[in-house]
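Quick illustration, no need to memorize.
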Amino acid sequence: MNNAGWSFAVSLWTLLIGIILWASAAWLCYAQWDRRGRTRRIGILESLRWGIVTLLLITLLRPEWVRLIERTDPPVVAILEDASASMTTRDMLLGSEGASRTEWLRSKDPNPVWARLAASAKVARGYFSASPRQEGTNSPGQKEEGTDLAAALDDVLQKHRNTKAVLVLTDGDWNLGRNPVASATRYRAEDIPIFSVATGRETVMPDLILERVLAPAYGLLGERVVLPFKVTSQVGREVRTSVQLLRDGREETRKEIVIPPLGALEDSILWSPKEAGEFSLTVKLPVEPEESLRQNNEQTFRMAVRSEKLSVLVVDSLPRWEYRYLRNALERDPGVEMQCLLFHPSLPVGGGRRYISSFPGTKELLSRYDVIFLGDVGVGEGELTERDAEFVKGLVEQQGSGLVFMPGRRGRSRTLMEGPLKDLAPVILEETKNEGVVLQNESNLVLTPSGRAHWLTRFDADESRNDEIWKGLPGFFWNASVTKSRPGSEVLAVHSSLRNAWGRIPLLVTRPYGNGKVLFMGTDSAWRWRRGVEDKYHYRFWGQVVRWMSHQRHLADKDGVRIVYTPETPRAGDTVMVQAAIMDINGAPAEKGPVVGIFTSPSGRAERVEFSPVEGGWGVFKSAFTPQEGGRHTLEVTSEKHQRRSKIGLTVALPTRERLGQPANYPLLREISTMTRGSFGTPEDLEKVVQQILLLPEPKPLEQRIKLWSHPAWGGLLLVLLALYWAGRKFSGLV
């Protein structure tokens, strides 16, 4: 049944003024017609003008044609039940036993509450977690788990035209889509109340949560792999426990940790793989007696361990003790292929096993090295050239190699660190002390807070024992003259006694540069660490340096293509920056493209991108892509011109949005219910809330309004009439 009529939005004073204007316009039109001889043509024009004024005055009254449509369909009560992962939190009671939020909801299915609702309205029950668009996809890739409450509310408005009320049974943990309050404003405008019942406790439950484990894409055999992790505590006491690393269910290592009450701990556990292959690893946190949840105490991931030879070049001038022992350490390392170049100031270039006769003076020759050690050598006659230094800079910046500065008493490193390689230097040297600082008493390296946690300085997995080892290492009697570290550098160790205006003298400092890493070692006495323990610490330190500095460079290196990408462990939605170093068939860096990449997601969706060249002539090309799915992606890089093709896989993780053990979001549910004139209740108030829904009046008839005053046809009519009036005046000779 339809009822129709006109509606005007006008005040009394506006109406009176309009009547006066309308009457005045009528009198003026009549006067104009009378003054011009009362001809028929003038009468038609003045009548048209008076009609236009009448229509304009009607427009000011804001007329609307209103139709009331009686509803014939039964009213709908929509019940939305949360089916997300957070609903598996066990903080509800069924009788005297604990139950999950989902189990509590299922226990209400045979309840007569729903039968009473069905007797007076059509009940439409639905479940929601991720947005409807994601739930409808048919993809073998991992979907992003989450709760989109706003999309579920919007979906009800689209599906049901005669909605009486909406009952939402959820913990309020929305983490996808827009704010549900925005959807509630639409319900308020359509006069549809939202009733909400919070499923879950309002207070946090005692729990330990292993939030994340950041595993690298791969590890090298003989390398100590660092696995950073984060633990969050919701326990009101200090927890002393241990973190275990399991490989295929067997314990590989463990680390003792102390978790502060109601706080968080970020730490790392070290793993030394003994064999190559791909392994399933699990980082596990023991369950405390008072913990309410046990599912979030471990994380499992896969990581490959590879056996590769790292190419290292050691360049120095005098065969000092540090040079000799460093050379022996690298030569005996089974994972390192080492070459040496010795520029003796008074003798010919050093020769012998693993020696080269000159510096690799081309990009083709230099690009094979993963790490370069520059000792007490500089730019000058009989040493390196400016061109050699520029090549080293390009190798670090674009090829991702590592560079180690190891200054000596000749002070020749200054010509590099204050010259061509100034931008790479992690420290600033004193201007007046080329020869460094000679000490009368033995001094030591003291680890900084960053150094205690850094992988390079780890001789023991336990941080406190590692600190004791460093305190017991033999010291030094000479160090480089350093003023301070440069911005962007990370100081790992400082001088035990020397200070200046900037604080303690930094002697072990790292700095990222381009795609590579730079290390500054400000003493020449690391060889003394062998005292009483032989090569235990000396070999381990330099082995860790080589592997740490070359890690990024060996993410993917085969078939003449070296692929580097950051971040190394991307998440869905992250922008992954990719650089591909292309070598031609002769092994030299490719100078020109084109280079094309094909990114393929687990669902089979392929994206083709062009790589653009990076200036410098090192054969490096860059691109980027943004994965939207979790799982194993593939990247195939092709350079048809140079007959190069390489395909790698990279694992994309999904953000952990659904967290167990979190309290229900009572404030959000209260807000959307209050805004829509509904009501909010706790789990004990379910029947009370349903009773309030039963007492609601029937939905009002649908109201359709045609706003004549703002309708395009009305405006067009006025425009046509004005045009006719103007044209009539022209033809009548009045203008």
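Residues 76-204+661-700 form a domain with the Rossmann fold fold (CATH 3.40.50.410).
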